[in-house]
Amino acid sequence: MTTQQLEYLVAIERSDTWADAAAQVGVSPSALSQGVAELERRLGISLFERDGRRRVPSSDHPEVLRYAERTVAATQDLARWLEQRRGGSTGTIRLGLIDAAATHHFRDVLRAYRDDRPDVELRLTVGPSGTLLRALERAELDLVGCVQPPEIPPGIGLSPVLDDPLAVLAPADSTSTRPADWGPWVTFPEGSHSRTVIADALASVGSTFDVVAESHQPEVLREMVLLGIGWTVLPLAGLGPVEGLRVVRPELAIRRLVLAQRTESAPDEVRDDLVRRLLTRT
Fold first, then answer.
1. Residue range 103-135, pLDDT digits in tens
2. pLDDT band at residue 265 using 50, 70 and 90 as cut-offs
3. pLDDT (0 to 100) of residue 263
4. Which residues contact 53 (CB under 8 A, 6 or more apart)?
5. Are strands 121-126 and 232-235 parallel, antiparallel or unpaired?
6. Where does residue 2 rank: exposed (0-12), middle (13-18), buried (19+ CB within 10 A)?
């Protein structure tokens, strides 16, 4: 296999059409098709199948794609490091954080880092844990602060940072005290790591989990509770004022926040300095 063939596979995954993928990697559509065909020949499996006039991924495609993304990511990391070394620059760090980490837990650290390292371009992306981890795998981010996932993605290393208590919040006029009477719920969307923690914790105390509304943003979920749409479970840290809400249980569960980075990434003193600061929050 060649790195170029793996880049073709990654480009197809990230593009709407094969023509767009070919343009992304700077080759003709026929050259892209030939490269994929050669990759299939060398692997001895089919990565795509015909569905009418369309080519769709085969059952073997996901595993090979994961390998391709890790390999392309490592190659891009090395290329960026070499470019920085040759140019004598410190470069850029692409950091992804969940909202609570960006606006509360790491806010002061990031402000101090920007003041101390004006030579570094720090690009911040805020989003859900799953989205950020996927971007990390694809080398679109260099470092991610997120909720610990149920399973560690291949090629990703995790470092625990802190434990974040999750509280049960209800409208102020609610009177229910038994877990069996809690709800209905407004919570994070399906697939969210925090939602998994919340669902497991509610089940363990005997509460049903009837979800009537969803949002990735804790502030939006808080407002939904204020409107009387339902109950929620959120971290109190960094949430803001809770007037009009009743804290039914201040520590229903704990979600662990971690720093994630690719295990095969090239050495980077600038990134390692930021990691040290985030881990110690100093």
1. 899 999 999 999 998 888 899 999 999 999 989
2. confident
3. 87
4. none
5. unpaired
6. exposed
- How many Cβ atoms are within 10 Å of 210's Cβ, its own excluded? 11
Determine if the pTM surpasses 0.85.
no
Q: How far is CA 3 from the centre of its chain?
A: 25
CA 55 and chain centroid, separation: 29
266 DSSP 8-state letter? P
Burial readout 238-275 (b: 16 or more C-beta within 10 A, e: otherwise): bbeebeebbebbeebbebebbbbbbeebbebebbebbb
pLDDT category at 14 given cuts 50, 70, 90 is confident
Contact 238, 212 (CB under 8 A): no
pLDDT at 88 over 70: no
Query: Nearest 10 degrees: CA dihedral of 181, 182, 183, 186?
Result: -170
First vs last Cα of the chain: how many Å apart? 44
The two tokens of residue 59 are 């059952």
- Find tokens 């809770």 and name the residue: 242
Under 8 Å between Cβ of 10 and 76: no
Phi, psi of 59 (to 5 degrees): -70, -25
Question: How many other CB atoms are there within 10 angstroms of residue 42's CB atom?
Answer: 11
pLDDT at 176: 84
Do 157 and 263 meet the contact criterion of CB atoms below 8 Å apart? yes
pLDDT of the residue at 182: 96
